Amino acid sequence: MLVKVHSYQIADSIDIKQFKAAFTAATYHEDSDELFYEIENEKYLYIFKYGIVSFLNYSETEMTAFIQIVIPHCKNLLAQKLSDEFEIETHAQRTKFGYNKIELVKAETEMYRLVMLNVSQSVALDHYEQQTKKLLGETNHLTLELELKGRLNLSGINLKKYIGRTLNLKNRIAENLYIFDSPEETWEDENLNKLDVGLKKTFDLQSRFRDIQEGLQIVKENLELFKDILQYRNSTVLEWIIIILILVEVLNLFVEKIFH
Fold first, then answer.
1. Contact residues for 24 (Cβ-Cβ < 8 A; gap 6+)
2. Is residue 135 situated within a structural domain?
């Protein structure tokens, strides 16, 4: 039997508590970060607070309709949805990992959940990678300007906003992704643990996560440099203001002595 997982990044975040109150189906698994539903036999929904909705064994029409139900509970909807598709083939002779497919000897609900979780984490990494590349592009533009002109055309307020965006992205990644952690269910079940490890390798999650972290670290180091440059520029301006005020005071004293 062949079934498909589709995961969509539709927003920066989904209010899990609010959605659960509005969608009254019974959850198979839930916590403050995610909701997992077994709608019917081998038909599942997975909602993540970091803006992802994942489907197993749903038609295009059903997925489109359900996303419309989720949208009112989203924050910062994406103009263009990121998505990934992954196939699960059951009743195979042995477990086998492929590029966009996995073959399982037998499929259980927890196995389906693990596959949906890893596909969703992969889509989330794509989303954060895009944002990191954008920050790196802006940073490179500023460093090139510094190289060519010897100065930064950047105000203190804009720099603070830039720092805020970088820190917010780092915090969201740290809070939402469990790349180096595995669900508790895998700790006591050897088959689930092997499946989780294999899926992480298939999607190259840890390597992609490190690339994002390294990119954000580069941005952070550049921002520290920009901050030091702006502080030096501001202190230099302040020094000149003080010098000018002293000169004005000296001139006033000189003029008073001449005319008195």
1. none
2. yes
In a domain, 68, yes or no: yes
Nearest to 171 by CA among 201, 131, 203, 139: 131
213-242 pLDDT, tens digit per residue, is 888 888 888 777 777 766 655 555 555 566
Whether pTM exceeds 0.85: no
Give yes or no for a contact between 44 and 112, defined as CB atoms under 8 angstroms apart: yes
Query: Which domain range does residue 15 map to?
Result: 2-145+155-219
User: Residue 14 burial (CB < 10 Å; 0-12/13-18/19+)?
Assistant: buried
| Number of domains within the chain | 1
Cβ–Cβ contacts within 10 Å for residue 26, how many?
8
Pick the most confident of 6-10, 94-98, 123-127: 6-10
